[in-house]
Inverse folding.
């Protein structure tokens, strides 16, 4: 098996605060992390490798040069190889342009590492939350897709994927090559070993830059190649607080609340 | 890339029994306003096998026309068959705008078709308007875990497509006697073009189905409930109100309750008439999933908890003292 795991480096959105004076995001000092859902995708690949030790796991990330840190995390946890896609002309890409560049990067990495049987992605990135790049990459490559996956195993020369749906879980069979996006499973992803961590720290990560893809259509990348544009951003307005009840005892507060809800015809 | 019509389409996703999922009917309501501003018709799109109930519902909730693709290959959702059918319809009838509910299947379908049609998609919108300058749909959505809102335009590509979260918009009042004009399209997909197969459906037992998105009242527990047994008074209050039990990420991550109960950025987005948050501090990720509720009640020990900033009613107090009395009082009021 040859598995590609696509990852993104993201700001830890649980650490983001709003500047109360300027009402803007405070990005300084917010740590950059491997996108949580991509960690689940990597774990799924690692679990396939647990059963089939000859499996090769390659990690691919598009982002600025410092995103190599996310790839080193992947190497420390389970990846055998890692590639960074990074170039000025790629900046400002929306999901459609990003997935197009990634599809070119997949072709390029396959020249070096061989065809991938499966491409695993996180369901979505925790900064953009779009859940679009995975399915769009599958479309560019012409691969079948399964989204919202929890876990997977190889069965009868297919990938059997347990996935979440609106009305419960189901198991989907999908032939290779395929693309699967992963959501949060019921188990915790593994931690890196010290040995792998040291090796990852020393690893040289090849960069696929602006000129790495000679046949790329330059009108379909970057800000200009993106069909969607951000018109404006703003911090959400929270409505003012309502009636606060704080009686002597919790019970007395409860009675007052029940009365208020009843009078407002909420219950 | 101009569209040939100014029509606005709403994808009406079906439930297993062939009736419409709530979100499609919800989207007909803001869809109506957008379609009128753009000067086009409001069209429901139904794909499935046995669609009469949904076609009727789409008409009742506001669609002028309903486009139907029907066949046994559409009985269960598959990316391959549904994407092929939707792209066929878009290319043939050329709408200006397409709204899709941001359900698991909607979020599977949306990026697949927007990529095939080489157009823009805005995911998980919570606000819809028309940008006065360009006449494009102004899609507003949360980013950075709900810390920031972004308004996005798709100026030069059609159709402009967005997925919209369930529960954000309310359904219009139904017009029972209104029937939409039905347009059948005989597009078919052969079995060998559907590459995935459903091997097994793992149904949740009837008493385990958690319908947060359709719930009128939700009672949620967070870190403050302290453990799995701490959900008992939460569940008792929910039972007294006929409510669905929700939870914050902290409670789910601690393993106190299943993920299917989770409300927030990585869980469900809800918009009930009444949302009671018990022992939930109100992290922005949680607020992103429930601040659209009509009435919010917060019960928390910490008077500085951010949940109070969005609450219509708040009790500063110990939930284990408050909830049993509240439950009894509500039982009395309802008796």
């Amino acid at each position: 098996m040859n598995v590609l795991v696509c990852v993104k480096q993201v700001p830890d959105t649980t650490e983001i605060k709003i500047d109360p004076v300027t009402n803007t995001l405070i990005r300084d000092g917010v740590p950059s992390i491997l996108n949580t859902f991509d960690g689940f995708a990597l774990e799924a690949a690692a679990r396939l490798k647990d059963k089939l030790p000859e499996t090769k796991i390659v990690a691919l990330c598009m982002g600025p040069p410092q995103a190599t840190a996310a790839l080193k995390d992947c190497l420390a946890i389970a990846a055998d190889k890692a590639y960074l896609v990074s170039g000025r002309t790629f900046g400002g890409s929306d999901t459609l342009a990003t997935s197009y560049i990634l599809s070119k990067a997949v072709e390029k990495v396959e020249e070096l590492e061989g065809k991938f049987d499966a491409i695993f992605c996180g369901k979505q990135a925790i900064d953009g939350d779009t859940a679009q790049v995975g399915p769009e990459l599958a479309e560019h490559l012409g691969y079948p897709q399964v989204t919202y996956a929890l876990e997977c195993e190889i069965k009868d020369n297919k990938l059997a994927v347990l996935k979440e749906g609106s009305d419960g879980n189901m198991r989907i069979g999908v032939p290779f090559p395929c693309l699967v996006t992963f959501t949060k499973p019921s188990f915790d992803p593994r931690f890196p070993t010290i040995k792998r961590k040291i090796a990852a720290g020393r690893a040289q990560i090849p960069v696929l830059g602006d000129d790495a893809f000679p046949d790329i259509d330059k009108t379909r990348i970057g800000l200009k190649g993106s069909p969607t544009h951000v018109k404006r951003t703003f911090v959400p307005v929270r409505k003012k607080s309502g009636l606060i009840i704080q009686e002597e005892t919790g019970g007395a507060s409860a009675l007052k609340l029940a009365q208020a809800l009843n009078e407002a015809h909420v219950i | 890339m101009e569209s040939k019509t100014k029509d606005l389409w709403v994808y009406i996703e079906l439930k297993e029994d062939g009736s419409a999922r709530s979100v499609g009917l919800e989207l007909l309501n803001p869809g109506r306003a957008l379609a009128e501003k753009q000067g086009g018709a409001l069209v429901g799109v139904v794909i499935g096998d046995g669609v009469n109930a949904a076609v009727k519902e789409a008409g009742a909730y506001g669609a002028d026309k309903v486009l139907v693709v029907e066949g046994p290959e559409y009985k269960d959702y598959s990316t391959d068959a549904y994407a092929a059918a939707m792209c066929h319809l878009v290319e043939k009838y050329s709408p200006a705008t397409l709204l899709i509910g941001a359900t698991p299947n909607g979020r599977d379908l949306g990026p697949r078709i927007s990529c095939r049609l080489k157009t823009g998609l805005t995911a998980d919108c919570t606000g819809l308007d028309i940008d006065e300058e360009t006449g494009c749909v102004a899609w507003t959505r949360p980013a950075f875990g709900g810390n920031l809102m972004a308004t996005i335009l798709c100026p030069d590509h059609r159709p402009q497509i967005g997925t919209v979260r369930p529960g954000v918009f309310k359904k219009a009042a139904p017009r029972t006697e209104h029937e939409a004009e039905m347009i059948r399209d005989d597009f078919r997909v052969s079995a060998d073009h559907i590459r995935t197969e459903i091997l097994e459906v793992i149904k949740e037992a009837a008493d385990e189905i958690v319908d947060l998105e359709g719930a009128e009242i939700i009672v949620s527990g967070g870190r403050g409930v302290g453990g799995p047994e701490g959900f008992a008074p939460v569940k008792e209050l929910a039972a007294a109100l006929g409510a669905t039990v929700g939870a914050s990420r902290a409670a789910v991550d601690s393993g106190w309750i299943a993920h299917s109960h989770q409300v927030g950025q990585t869980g469900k987005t809800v918009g009930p008439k009444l949302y009671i948050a018990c022992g939930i501090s109100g992290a922005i990720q949680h607020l992103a999933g429930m601040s659209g509720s009509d009435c919010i009640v917060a019960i928390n020990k910490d008077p500085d908890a951010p949940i109070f900033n969005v609450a219509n009613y708040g009790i500063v107090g110990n939930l284990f003292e408050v909830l049993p009395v509240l439950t009894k009082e509500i039982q009395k009021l309802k008796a």
